[in-house]
Amino acid sequence: MGKAITQREGAVMILGGGIAGIQAALDMTDLGYYVYLVEKSPAVGGVMAQLDKTFPTNDCSL
Amino acid sequence: MVTNADFLALDGKPGNFTAKLNIRPRYIDADACTACGLCTQYCPKHHSDAYNEGLSITRPIHIDYAQAVPATYYIDPSSCMFLQHDTCQICVPVCQSHAINFNQKPESRDLKVGAVILSPGFGKIAPETLEKYSYGKHPDIVTAYEYERMTTASGPFLGEIKCFSDGRHPKSMAFIQCVGSRDLGCDNGYCSSVCCMYAIKEALVTKEHDPEVDITIYYMDIRTQGKDFDAARERAEAIGIKFVRAKVADVTPWENHLKLTYSTLDGQHKFDSHDMVILSVGLESPKDAQKISDITGIELNKYDFCKTETFAPLETSQDGIVVAGAFQGPKDIPESVTQSSGAAILASTVMKKQRGKGTVNKEYPDELSVTDDDEVRIGVFVCHCGINISSVVDCPDVAKDAGTMENVTYYTENLYSCSQDAQEQIKNTIKKEKLNRVVIAACSPRTHEPLFQETLKDAGLNRNLFEMVNIRDQCSWVHANEPVAATAKSKDLVRMAVSKAARIQPLPEQTVPVIPKALILGGGVAGMTAALSIADQGFHSVLVEQSSGIGGNLQNLKNTLAGDTVVNHLKTLTAKVKKSSNIDVVTDARLAQTSGFIGNFSSVIESGKGTSKKEQTYDHGVIVVATGGHEHRPDKYQLGKSKKVMTQQELETKLAGRAKNRAPDSIVMIQCAGSRGDDLTYCSKVCCNHAMKNILKIKEINPESQIIVLYRDIRTYGFAEDAYLEARKKGVIFIPYDVDRKPEVSSKGTKVQVDFFDSIMQEDVSMTPDLVVLSVGIVPDGTEELSKMLKLPVNANGFFLEAHVKLRPVEAAVDGIYICGLAHAPKPVEETIVQAQAAAAKASMPLVNGYVTVDPIVSSVEEDKCIGCGICVSLCPYGAIQMKKVGKKKKAETVSASCKACGICASHCPTFAISMGGFTNEQLISQIEAFGNNKVEEKVNA
To answer: How many CB atoms lie within 10 A of CB B794?
Structure first.
């Protein structure tokens, strides 16, 4: 997404880049909007990125 | 994506907000950093690795994990020698791409946005709360987060589970549930809703590591109320994980063991020793919840989570600001993902006039032409997947072997082929080495093929010039104990893929226009909410309801646990639906027939009765299935036989009436009557809340009423736990029963008798209450017939299956069909509304886009060879093959957009006239021959 034009119309801000924020970002994009995904840490992913497997199927979380 | 950013202020109004951010410097130029990791190797300062929960050491200059996005390193100023003490700077000359820049300054940025979605997640339970379990006093007492990192193959111990105290492998482990949740000591009265699941998961994973290890889970109630979650608990019990219903009072270090003191329900105090204790810590409200509330003006609830209403679960108290995920209340991944989609449609409604104005379409380079005349140049990339593959399979050997194969002009290895830097490397290699086929030996194409195909497109190659080999699942995982054989098998698989790759052809990508209308099946709260949300986006829908009026189960409910009066909301909702010019409601109606595919469905709707019966055909692009469910009526416990036995729903109606004796003096409630191993195998999720709601109502009407609740586990998850606490405070007695010792109900004249074993007093009890109330569970409505018509799979209990339980919770396996409400699984009204909004969001996407892209792997019929026998048409499960007339003969033809590429037609065609794109006979035969070729080589070598 590079250097964003801050004055663009049709943009939404999503505060928090965990699984909820990422999914919301993807969905807003698919619904036709520009997304600013704002995350306080250096990378998105949140707690889910720290998980090894997921319940109940034990699929890999990453 | 704006990372390392603090949210400072928000001004303006819905449709026109200005958000103020402060972006902290990374001290590394994101465009220049190649994520090579050299800087971390040279950095001399230690830094506690927060990603690994402090279990390992990293450096101030680092990246959290290899797949991190953005894949740019950063410097943590809190421990960097230069930023703290003005010395060092070793990293600067080390970096070959000159990416390190200590002159970076914090940058303030204003964003103009139409709406805001809050998804800040959750916080951590304060360490003081953990102290009572001796956390911090003994190294073998760990939190579940720390334990999660320990079991992870790519974690600090490479998946080895050991005691921190002396490095031995623990033989006996204990999980303590409800640490920091359902805990009034730390003011967290709520249930965190996820800990039971992750504890069972971690216990199961531990058993995989070491089947001999003894695991005990100490719990109050096991709350596996989610769809198919109980089955995992049963699996855990079956492999010997022990579940002990007890309150743990104390954990004391005792030699090199840990002594647990706990009390069981029957009042006994017991002790047990374990090697390791894992604290199942709950989800706290996010650390900056109060700050977010101050900036945005949104209200918080008493636990500092975002305050929302039952009938508007994603709306904050401020217009234009919506919420999703754990900030709305503790919840698991699928619930969070569902809420995100729901929040997206709400945000979209706020700013729909601005739709499309801010987006930039991604552009791809022109596709390089690849023809039969071109020399085949295959590049092979072998992924280590950290150590997930390479700890078993000899990856360098596999890559080297690939290099000896015909047509392979390039081969290499990657630590993580899926990382962002690896994509750049693959792109550059394709260009530099003039590759026209790519083979990646890594994990499952199910999860990663699209990513790599996108990389091919970025490099100007058709995305079908790609073969993926799964050497993780099929080699390193299943043959974990046979590294040599796993390596040999990896080589075989790569050789087969290379052989096939030499024969693959580019396949054209097609797009199909979408009819911008929706069909919604079911006029309950789910269907109505979905219809309204889609209408808000500006699209038309037909709402098909089988009964004579819309409203569904909401018509039977009187009030909610939160105290809302249902009838008012129902009236508003139905009025909105009826008023909307974008919604046509058809009652007394059913779907008689449907055909077509995403974007182009055509359905016949039968409506009316007797002489006024009629049929109408409706063309639409998507289908939302919201057919609902109803209360299960078990043929036992004297239900329907005695007037003194009723269901919770019947009781709710009775309590809302005016009958004098509607809340009698003595009541017994039986939970899971018919559920969880009775007639139904699953938990219906709503019954415990339903019971609490009725209990509190009874106590309001008749405070003297003596209520006994016989239960298996009380599952008042989330904030509903408050109601459970209130019920206990009001003197309601809760007695657990065992599944093989169920309570019995019998009629004695006009009286009704309940016999049960009192597990608290340890004695058999027989009583004749004024009323017996059954929590009976929920069954789906008519999913079987619909499942056949729409080709939608259902689970063992008749609920529709989602495409992916975690990541695609409202999409069906068939494209263009979305599921919500009770047809998906039992759930309370709040979750139904969220799911309906999410389904509407997903359904709106193709409608907004106006077209769908068709997967190029479809069947195609060679007209010359086709004899028009029609076998394929009769066999296709998706209705994707039709007969057409060519001259005087009949020929088969594929409807590309409906084709799911299952291959049934191709395998049954008697004249081999049908082939599958990307899986032609020639390609498959070459793969099989390549497998055999190895044997020849071995013989030659011998």
So the answer is: 16
